[in-house]
């Protein structure tokens, strides 16, 4: 593919992962972003890399591929140079494992069944006795009805991870241009041949739409709209504490949860501590466009959920809250592949609350699709040409369950 | 008065108290909120005991007026006074149409108490009067024990009568250094010298040719003269164009290095001098507390030309901000001392209450407010923070004390192509992410990153994602998880006390 020019539109973690794969494959890669690199959604979420929240299906397969790739990719980034080693360290990879806790009888039943199905699909999910749970998480609520340990769950510091992937892409020859907003497409003989930006035109053979929650807007500017829209989430950060939470701990409420209106506020709590000692608590889900207001009642609901898991955190101060916009597709599956309506245009996005974790697998898959290589897994469930992406979103409600968390 | 306008005043310092007073006079119903137990703000909080002894004349001049206003406001039947009530968040109604935010409060105790109740407050107009805190620039050794911010040293000296040291150097910029030195002396510390970083030329240019035209309006002349006399009596040297560029010591400060500064605050080679000390107090101006104005959506105004970095809330002639129904007064609009804050508060309170814009007393208030503004401008021009101060820093100098981030780490992060966006450097260096949430280091880190990066690295802000700024703290005060999880109730006026 020497001489093939690829332009990645968006320098979030998905753009970074795709740029890296394409650059390593020898393409001449340019990454354009209207803002700073890794500064949008990627710097406004959390960094959970979870298998535990995904039921058997296409997304779980992508998650497993990504989980395998993460340590390999970071090791390769680190091996490249001293700067690479620094960048990889800043990703703060931590394979700390996840623990899912049910607090009701029905919750316990649903969780047990869900874990069994996951085990069938190759995920490690170990039931914990009450005693095992308390030794793993001494401060967790005594009112638990079931708990499972997922040793494969991990975390990164998302902006650091994205910067590490991007730095590696740059080291492999890619070019980064920040402050370049893409305004429209240049179509020649039915093919996307270039983009117009605020700073001039950029021509290429391959364009990858990696514009996160703005992927819908950007694709419309290019003349091939896809159904990606924002879904707001808010995260609470406490002051630093002595070690209190040792894994990613979250409630099992989401398991089997179906059908509640997507516009409504939904909350669940993933409780985890960061390297600096703060506890991060995420998060809410709300469809409210790009409304940047933090809503006290949404934060309150998240706090209440967290206290149900860790009642002893009641006296811990929250010192910060922030929020971002998940790139949302109504059927909760990412969009990865060529746009059948506009040759030259590819999409890599719509990962909602799991884009950090799924980024490296997505980058790999996209490269394989672009180069026409055999793919590491079946990519058809992620194809652009599906009702949730191209059609009426109302007719494309989720077909699967157990995909209500993110990684939050 | 059934349909009286309801004005919420946040902050009961000189500006807020005076806003409440004026709003009541204009016929409004007022809810006055402060996180402190008593009204008075930064200025009056420490006055009574400490000043009573040494300065009866000032006491009689200033304190009774404050006392009278305090009593009148708090006892007014249309006033609800909410002490121990911290505003932890402002919730704007919607991006469009803009209007005064819903005020979210934590009521009933100091921040470290437990079980404060969440309340909400909806008013027709909101006056923000939350003040400023003193700013300190980093320098090698500034994190040693024995190095105080000037404000903290003054609070210790005045409030608790603590002797901070027996060989003290006071350094920084601004007239505020003088009362600090005075308080230290009164509490029994020995002050060796007061170092004003601004040189004589800068001071003269800033204050202009006829500074006395301004001074009487703000009631500052006598005060400053008094301090100068006090320093002279104690044989404290007052030097211009010199500052502390390093503190050294084993486990605590034992000596400081002072140096002569050029107007841009670069060090004059060969001018360094070592002074043995046991304490040093530094202050480099004030940072307005902008988190609530930003949360309300208020537009800030740019820096005063040549003035200190950081912006203030933009207000019009009636102290209106850019958000309908939101007013600002006091040090969040400019730094000019307590009398100016009072004048601004009065104008804001009157306007927020919908008072007659042609009312006679308003004219005098406006005049004294305008004098305060002019004073603020001259103050900023006479005491600019020189851009070359970062030359004092070494790679291992800590810039964010909460997280221990040093200058070298900041330089490395900013110059890394892939990770140089402000939001990303913040996450990777952790500067500003600690318990103080950048209240101390925020403006400093923002200034350093902007300078290191050259151009603004972030381009256009993202839709829905506010630009990373040193003052953006939507959670304006820490709130315990238990307090947050509990439901909130509308403020019930009958429950609150009329002192
Ligand atoms: C609260 C919250 C918690 C989360 N927690 C997790 C978690 O624990 N684990 C997990 O895996 N995921 C999590 N996520 C999801 C994850 O953050 C996202 O899926 C991921 O960051 C999306 O990355 P992206 O690269 O697609 O988008 P972005 O990071 O938004 O990048 C898109 C880029 O495109 C650029 N762009 C947009 N329009 C244009 C244009 N016209 N021209 C040029 N550039 C343009 C933007 O400037 C932006 O930089 C969370 C999200 C939120 C909001
Ligand atoms: C240590 C020190 C010494 C000073 N000495 C002098 C002097 O000698 N002479 C002089 O003229 N000036 C002096 N000043 C300046 C003077 O104090 C100020 O000009 C004046 O206090 C400003 O008034 P203000 O009302 O704007 O703010 P402040 O007096 O700061 O009042 C703000 C009030 O808002 C409250 N508040 C803030 N945030 C919240 C929140 N989120 N929720 C609820 N309440 C909140 C605070 O508790 C405070 O009571 C000094 C300042 C300091 C810091």
Automatic annotation (TrEMBL), chain A:
InterPro entries registered for this protein in UniProt: FAD-dep_OxRdtase (IPR006076), FAD/NAD-bd_sf (IPR036188)
Pfam family, one: DAO
Region (Disordered) location: 384-408
UniProt KW keywords: Oxidoreductase
Presence of keyword Kinase: no
One MF term in the entry's GO annotations: oxidoreductase activity
One of the record's GO cellular component terms: cytoplasm
Coiled coil: none
The name this protein goes by in its record: FAD-binding oxidoreductase
